[in-house]
Fold this protein.
Amino acid sequence: MKARQFVGGLVREPLVHFLALGAALFLLFGLTRETDQPSERRIVVTAGQVEQLAGQFSRTWMRPPTEAELASLVERHIRNEVFYREAQALGLGEDDPYVRNRLALKLQFVLDDLSAEAEPTDAELQRFLDEHAEQFTVPARLSFSQVYLNPDRHPDPAAEVRRVLEALRGGADAAGLGDPSLLPSRFDDATLPEIAREFGEEFADELAEVQPDRWSGPVPSPFGIHLVFVTDREPGRQLPLEEVRPAVLAEWQDQRREQAREEAYQRMRDRYEVVIEPEAQAGAVIGSNPANQAAARPGAQGSAGTGGPRRDAAEGRP
């Protein structure tokens, strides 16, 4: 009985767990090293790598490293390389989504660097500018005043519009006409998107067609009715290449990188046979809703039917 208690206590001892784990790792290391090639057990620290380590230290501490500090940096580099190779030998990164994503991202960076080597000609940039003119256009700008009318406050809104419009065209002060509103009565050098954010798309579209230097209307908006006076209209224009060359070049390079990345992916993907199991496809279509997954499983008709009334009630149906 005492022997059994002694063995049970020994099994629960943390030191025993540590020694057992160490023995298992030692055995595993021994097995993996038997198949290693000599070149796989050789670590070469190049002069370029040492220079890079010293440069990183200098940028951080604003001074070059001492001999002892540089030796420590090199040893840390060797330690990381040893740990990296041993982790690879143990297969620690095979099922790690973080490692997989990092490697995929690094490959994308390599593809981006390769695609960025080409430099376009001015003719190519001009053609790109012409094809994407809307991205490099100075937007039209308008300056205008507006008088607001709330249809709910007038029994005959059309008659009130005619009355106020006639007064405005007769020289009446706009500040004394119309209904109270928190909307600005004056806009200067506003683009159509800016105007649309304040008054809505319909208002902005109609305002763009209003004849300047006279009171016009009614122009509708989600808030009500407006009478408007456009004082200045600056039409939009496409910028020439010499004014926007850096921006056009950056956009051209972005699109080229995206295109090259997609073409490289398709070439690599064509080398693989991709098999998506039917169960995985069903799960992707149905989603993660447990009730839907239950309904999709064979023989789950009863459970799905039981859950039906609960879903109808939750969605507000009778």
Notes: The first strand starts at residue 137 and ends at 138. The CA atoms of residues 64 and 119 lie 36 Å apart. The chain is about 60% helix and 10% strand. The radius of gyration is 36 Å.
